[in-house]
Specification:
two-stranded antiparallel sheet, 279 residues, four-stranded antiparallel beta sheet, elongated, 9 helices, alpha+beta, 39% helix
Amino acid sequence: MAGVLVVFGVWLLDNVLYIDDPVGAVAVHCLNGIWGTIAVGLFATTSAPGNDSVVGLFYGGGFGQLGIQLLGVLTVIGWSAVTITIAFLIIRGTVGLRVSAEEELVGLDTSEHGLMSAYGGFSIHDRMPGGSMADVSAPAAVSVPMEASAPVDDTAALEGYGPYTRVSIFCNQNHFEDLKAALTEIGVTGMTVTQVMGCGAQKGRTGYYRGVSMTMSLLPKLKVDVVVSTVPVEKVIAVAKKTLYTGNVGDGKIFVYNVQNVVRVRTGEEGYDALTNET
């Protein structure tokens, strides 16, 4: 029952109540805590170790114990509601309940602890099911529309590129899956992805770790390297800019380099064959 209830609880918060609970704490602790308390009034038997008097409803104990368990649930809910409301009001009136809008977008793993993510190996997305953007309460810092701020001609070849070109894309990790899908769609068949730390003109940020001020905090990014030959470089740039653009600080940067040659170690093939031939 608990296994079924936790799945239902996560679905309920995400898809019906739209409450952000990324670790499923409400489903695990709150809903299953309520269920575990009520279950005593339904299923308790004297065969359980240490229990010689409590009998649940389904085993002939009547509604008495079930009523006690329900009263316990309501008591805990009432106590929690009152005490946490008082605590939140005090916090809001002193240090404030919310972090800055920028920290909301970047995430507290970075600003508070200097970590790329507290959940290594998880893929982080910023879209709700169905493809719509998640409702982020922090205001977007968009001042110029994408069309005006990042014009790219998909047809005109950019001058100065050799036969092989490396495009290095630095982006936020929560946009990587969208970027990978977009690059694959235009024919990019290989990429190298590296987790990096760095900062640009924003010089990182001053953060706190366990109450200690950190004067310099490098920001986590992903570096996506692709080498293209037949896929137009300008198309790669256009797709990357369109996919990554939000108008906020930290959307990323794109660097373009000429590549003199490409050599496949296993076969010794060079140039175009080394990029495309997989035999």
